[in-house]
Amino acid sequence: MFAYPNGLYAETIPYFIGGQFLETGIYFPAGEGKASFAKRAEMGEAIANVIASEGHENKIYLTTGLPSYSFSDIAQVLTELSVSQSLIIAQKPIHIKHDLKNMA
Question: What distances in angstroms separate CA 44 from CA 3, 29, 37, one per listed residue?
Fold first, then answer.
């Protein structure tokens, strides 16, 4: 038996930043927090390699990407790759009580 907890999938980034980020910019209240992302297929390949080999009893392997990136870093990379205007992240404050009330 071995444990293989996954980090965040890179494929989830669009869910965090929104599908229209090229038009609207990125609004995500992450502050200076950073996360490591890796592709799901690459994590799956790593897990398959462990399953297919021996010597992993009672081991824990954490699959994630390095280094960690902030959403400001992600916005900067997407700005460099896009032909649109700057996507610099706006740190939208969290107003949970207000937002939940307006959702009802």
Answer: 13, 30, 14
